[in-house]
Write a structure and sequence with these properties.
This protein is mainly beta. It is built from 2 helices and 13 strands, in the order ββββαβββββββββα. The strands form 3 sheets. It has a 6-stranded antiparallel β-sheet with strand order 1-2-10-7-12-5, with no helix packed on it. The protein has a 5-stranded antiparallel β-sheet with strand order 9-8-11-6-13, with no helix packed on it. The protein starts with a strand and ends in a 13-residue tail after the last helix. The model has no long low-confidence stretch (mean pLDDT 96).
Length: 189
């Protein structure tokens, strides 16, 4: 299993080894010991799966009180996944990074994305449909649920909207009511 650094400290691309032959392939996408050895969380308490159609934009979500680290993997389709560092004491505070995630990369590799606690997370579906599976380090906590506007001008995230051929992203009513980054309740230091 390879642990690949990204532009944001502590956000990692996880690339497990894939073994295949003419019958198909096998991979171990999570191994508690491998994660522990890489200084990543080895304990997850909840698995979530979503199905979305082209143009659906989910996020930017995070939780206060019971923050969640997320291990994100695309089972089908293609998404552009975004992590935003909300940790005030981080040198990357307020910075974001985006990642094209598919079941297999163009090179035939599998990637999962590790997003630690203290980050906002969102994604845009670029394929006809997409199924996303993510493991979390903490349970869903409705009272702590927060959202930052996906198109916040301070964050200035370069969403690949051109891939939607002029169609506006489809955002839930709740996400449309997200806060501006400068007005959001952010995690405590």
């Amino acid at each position: 299993m390879l642990i690949l650094n990204t532009a944001l400290a502590d956000v990692k691309l996880i690339q497990p080894k894939r073994f295949g032959d003419n019958r198909g392939w096998f991979t171990e996408v999570f191994n508690q010991n491998s994660f522990r050895d890489a200084h990543l969380p080895a304990q997850f308490v909840q698995d979530n799966q979503s199905f979305s159609t082209r143009g659906v934009l989910r996020g930017l979500h995070y939780q206060l009180g019971q923050p969640q680290g997320k291990l994100v993997r695309v089972l089908s389709g293609h998404i552009w996944d975004v992590a935003v560092d909300l940790r005030r004491n981080s040198p990357d505070f307020g910075k974001w990074a985006g990642f094209h995630l598919k079941p297999l990369t163009d090179e035939g590799e599998i990637h999962s994305l590790w997003i630690p606690e203290g980050f906002a997370h969102g994604f845009l579906v670029l394929s006809e449909t997409a199924e996303v599976l993510y493991k979390t380090t903490n349970l869903y906590y409705p009272q702590g649920e927060r959202s930052i506007l996906w198109n916040d001008p301070t964050l200035n995230i370069a969403w690949p909207l051109d891939a939607l051929n002029g169609v506006a992203p489809s955002v839930s009513p709740k996400d449309a009511q997200g806060k501006a980054f400068l007005e959001a309740d952010l995690p405590p230091v």
